[in-house]
Specification:
mainly alpha, two-stranded antiparallel sheet, 2 strands, about 0% strand
């Protein structure tokens, strides 16, 4: 077949191939997303939140090192600085502490939980996968809005840090 030729004559509808179901790699990837999400939640529940502004998390009374490479090397926070501490505070039932660590931490946590639920539902309900994917597509597009919100929340924090 020459380059640019179509398999179907012009104007004829092409019938899709019968659904073969998901490939093994897709199943493993979605299971990995669910497992990583559950693991992150478990670790966040094991960690102890530090005081807002301290930048330190504890596990069993031992302080953990700073995890943001940008902040550790330049002193300038990245758009995600404080998200881990915000999640830990939120999962420990401290909404004020969560907001103090990062104003959008709760929203990012909800987004991550929604993605985990989406992939879990896709794995658990094979007959509902089309509906799950329709909702999941909307959720995927929401990451752009979430990214824009994170950048918008970061700019004032950046200028505050640079003005010190």
């Amino acid at each position: 077949m020459a380059r640019g030729e179509s398999l179907a004559p012009v104007g004829e509808r092409v019938r899709p191939l019968p659904d073969q179901g998901p490939c093994r790699a897709e199943l493993l990837l979605r299971a990995l997303v669910v497992a990583l999400g559950a693991g992150i939640l478990c670790v966040a529940l094991l960690l102890e939140p530090g005081a807002p502004g301290s930048g330190r998390l504890r596990i069993g009374g031992i302080f953990l090192p700073e995890t943001c490479a940008l902040k550790a090397t330049t002193g300038v926070p990245c758009p995600g600085c404080g998200l881990t501490r915000s999640w830990v505070s939120a999962l420990h039932g401290d909404p004020a502490g969560s907001l103090a660590h990062h104003p959008l931490g709760w929203l990012v946590l909800l987004y991550a939980l929604a993605q985990g639920a989406r992939h879990g539902a896709w794995l658990a309900a094979p007959r509902r996968r089309a509906a799950v994917e329709r909702l999941g597509g909307r959720l995927d597009r929401g990451v752009l809005v979430l990214g824009a919100l994170l950048l918008g929340a970061w700019i004032p924090r950046l200028f505050e840090t640079l003005s010190r």
